[in-house]
Amino acid sequence: MAVYLRCIAQTPDYPAAKRILSALRERVRHLAPRPSISADAPKPYWKMAGHYELSLRLAPANRNVYQSLKVLSTRWDWLSDGDTGVWAAERGGLFCIPKIVWAELQLD
Q1: CA 35, 39, 45: angle at the middle one, nearest 5?
Q2: Which domains does the chain have, with CATH numbers?
Q3: What is the pLDDT along the chain (108 residues), one digit of tens a residue?
Q4: What pTM value is reported for the model?
Q5: What is the radius of gyration, based on Cα positions, of the chain?
Q6: Rounded distance, CA 31 to CA 29, Å?
């Protein structure tokens, strides 16, 4: 099993996106220290200029790891499968890193 966290950050350039990814990784490591955390390099988000996609994979993981990461946001919208949550800034709530404007948390 693995947990995936995909985020979209509003940031002007790659170095800033790397700093945000580093901060996100440290926050996740604090909440779920046991699984290994791999990260893809930030990449420009194709739908919006000035945004970068950030992706983390935690493995091996289980439902407890997944549950511990739910505190990253104050408001997730859960899909019917119960294993995928989506957060978006325009729907309200907060995310643990202010530059992030969208996030998806998935247990797979």
Answers
A1: 140
A2: 3-107 (3.30.70)
A3: 999 999 999 999 999 999 999 999 999 999 998 889 999 999 999 999 999 999 999 999 999 999 999 999 989 999 887 899 999 999 888 899 999 999 999 999
A4: 0.94
A5: 13
A6: 5
Q: How far is CA 33 from CA 28, 60, 63, 87, 90, in A?
A: 8, 11, 14, 23, 30
Positive or negative, the Cα torsion across 55, 59, 63, 64? Answer: negative
The closest of 101, 105, 107, 108 to 5, measured between CA atoms, is 105
Neighbours of 62 (CB within 10 A): 14
